[in-house]
Specification:
five-stranded mixed sheet, alpha+beta
Length: 498
């Protein structure tokens, strides 16, 4: 039986999250040095704290705020808020090893969002309407580019929120949003995403789909928004997961220019409509053929045709903070990976209770492609069930490519320990299970017929299980050396066991 979430963290919006980080050493820095949002800002943070699959050298580092953006007087930019698992743990109030369990419990104790009056919404302190003579979102908001070859400026941390035009059910997700003009933003959908299903329904009816993009919110909302089916099926409002995490409903507000709801305490809200039967070339202004760096570490191809949001209004708090991220940074690993861990834990626990102790979706796997499952075999009857758990993991998250199974004496949050298990408890010819011809994710460039003749179509992959567990009957031959338990502080007073 899961327990209700009670993290005792006083975070409810972006500013309170920053205030919390300032109480920890090494979690937050800011600079008054003017920075160009066109590639320079991301170029700086690549060295400071991006991590992930970003081109080396990079590292895990603090979140960073740029107080002075060239060409913009009032707006600041935050990058890397969630680019450290330890930082996510502090913001959510749980040990970093238990975040998957925390998220799983928040789903079970979800609290639906509520709507408050416009006069109480801090996101509408300042209002710019598209009907204003001087309206130009390019001059109002400093959307960054990650690299000089990007298709254009992108909003990368926008919580896109819309309703099913038939049922009224809501969904929130994060998408690739490219600024295309003074009041136009293109929106790229990976096939199957829920908001795209809403857009298709509206388009088939010849109607625009009202939508809001909330930028700079409570990090619990950003993490919750990244849950996917089967944990959150079509029509499930992931804002309820954030409510479960905080023990309090997320507050929404009606838009000032469109019939759609936005996150009431967001730093910035873009209101608009997805226009039916209107497409643009994603790189129409740059012709680079590139979109932006994506989570696998490669720059995605610009799409020939992408739907367009016609912007109707921009609202924001006074002196707003625009939040952004680098596509291949560890920010994506944590956004995608921690909800994936929760989904796998839930699926496996319901089917095979007590077998899987924990799950980690590590940085090299981008949060989407690789999962480590920590297995606690209780007897001979669990032989084979651990491989069933791997199959369930693939069912819980269809974009997984590789699953590693390790015993419960292996630290799945230590890549060296996982590799040690693979070195001493794995034989390739008997412990590798191939599952060819399965749909995975289109942004992995190796999943293409040009890479291997075994792949029939782009986005199809050979999924693989690496069984690095010890056969139960041989477990006594694989006991790790046991050391004496000692009080190290007798010798080093300020020593802390990691």
């Amino acid at each position: 039986m899961s327990e209700k979430v009670n993290n005792n963290v006083d975070v409810y919006d972006l500013r309170s999250a920053i205030a919390l980080l300032k109480t920890f050493d090494g979690e937050y820095i800011e600079t008054d040095e003017p920075v160009d949002p066109a590639a320079e800002l991301s170029g700086v943070y690549r060295y400071v704290g991006a991590g992930g699959t970003v081109m080396r050298p990079t590292r895990t580092g603090p979140a960073m705020v740029f107080n002075k953006i060239k060409g913009y007087d009032d707006c600041r930019v935050l990058i890397g808020l969630l680019a450290s698992r330890q930082r996510v743990a502090r913001l959510l109030g749980a040990p970093k090893e238990q975040l998957g369990h925390l998220l799983r419990n928040s789903v079970k104790h979800a609290i639906p969002p509520v709507v408050i009056s416009n006069d109480k919404a801090s996101c509408q302190e300042v209002v710019h309407l598209a009907t204003d003579a001087d309206f130009d979102l390019r001059r109002l908001l400093p959307a960054p580019t990650n690299t000089p070859e990007d298709a254009g400026p992108y909003f990368t941390m926008g919580m896109c929120y819309a309703a099913d035009p038939e049922t009224g059910e809501h969904d929130v997700t994060i998408h690739r949003l490219c600024v295309q003009g003074k009041d136009e933003i293109s929106m790229y959908f990976v096939p199957g995403r829920h908001l795209d299903q809403f857009r298709i329904k509206a388009e088939e009816a010849g109607k625009a789909l009202p939508i809001t993009i909330s930028i700079g919110v409570d990090p619990a909302i950003e993490i919750g928004a990244c849950f996917e089916p089967p944990t959150t099926p079509l029509g499930y409002d992931e804002l309820a997961i954030a409510g479960g995490l905080r023990g309090k409903a997320v507050e929404l507000v009606e838009g000032v220019a469109v019939k759609a709801r936005a996150i009431a305490n967001a730093e910035i809200v873009i209101e608009g409509e997805l226009v039916p039967n209107y497409r643009v070339q994603e790189d129409q202004h740059t012709k680079t053929g590139k979109a932006m760096p994506e989570f696998p570490g490669y720059t995605g191809d610009a799409k020939a045709e992408v739907p367009v949001i016609k912007v109707k209004a921009i609202t924001h708090r006074k002196h707003p903070i625009l939040q952004t991220c680098i596509g291949p940074s560890d920010e994506h690993t944590n956004l995608a990976g921690i909800p994936t861990e929760a989904s796998i834990l839930d699926m496996v626990e319901r089917a095979i209770p007590g077998l899987v102790k924990n799950v980690h979706c590590p940085s090299p796997g981008t949060g989407k492609y690789v999962a480590f499952l920590q297995i606690g075999k209780r007897g001979p009857q669990d032989e084979g069930r651990h491989r069933q758990a791997a199959l369930l993991a693939f069912s819980a998250f269809s974009e997984l490519k590789h699953v590693f199974l390790v015993d419960d004496d292996v630290d799945i949050f230590d890549l060296s320990d996982v590799m040690w298990a693979m070195t001493t408890r794995y034989q390739g010819d008997v412990d590798t299970i191939f599952i060819p011809g399965v749909r995975c994710h289109p942004l992995d460039p190796s999943q293409d017929p040009a890479f291997s003749p075994s792949i029939p179509d782009h986005g199809i992959s050979c999924k693989t299980i690496y069984d690095c567990t010890v056969p139960y009957k041989l477990r006594h031959n694989f006991e790790r050396s046991k050391f004496m338990e000692v009080d190290v502080t007798r010798f080093i007073p300020d020593f802390k066991v990691s």
